[in-house]
Amino acid sequence: MSNITPLVLMETIVAEGNITAAAEKLYVSQPYLSKMLSRLEGEYGLEFFTRLPRSVQITYAGERYLDHLRRKHEIDLDMLSEFDMISKNKKGKLN
Questions:
Q1: Which of 3, 9, 56, 94 could bond to 49 as cystine, CB 3.0-4.6 Å?
Q2: pTM
Q3: Ramachandran region of residue 91, left (φ > 0), alpha (ψ -120 to 50) or beta?
Q4: Pick from 42, 22, 38: nearest CA to 30
């Protein structure tokens, strides 16, 4: 089972320009990656990519979804950094 996050999935498809190339880059099959994308799109009831004969083009909904994923990732990184500093007693409240 792959542990490809929605952020990695979306960024790789955008960077590669088609699902087949993205699947190769992520070392998974094209049908598997297509199914992952379809599940995400189904979860939100939106199409994140327009499928063209030999490529895909990100939709407005896809752009917004990717932006939110990136912001969420930054928040997660900030949280982990802060917790690391707290665990090393470099940040916190004095008692």
A1: 56
A2: 0.85
A3: beta
A4: 22
- Beta-carbon contacts of 4 under 8 Å, excluding residues fewer than 6 positions away, are 26, 28, 33, 36
Give residue for tokens 């499928």: 51
Tell me: the pLDDT tens digits for 28-87?
Answer: 999 999 999 999 999 999 999 999 999 999 999 999 999 999 999 999 999 999 888 888
DSSP-derived pairing of the beta strands 49-51 and 56-58: antiparallel
Task: Return the number of other C-beta atoms located less than 10 Å from residue 78's C-beta.
Answer: 10
Q: What angle do CA 48, 14, 59 make, to 5 degrees?
A: 30
Q: Which two tokens stand for residue 29?
A: 């099959």
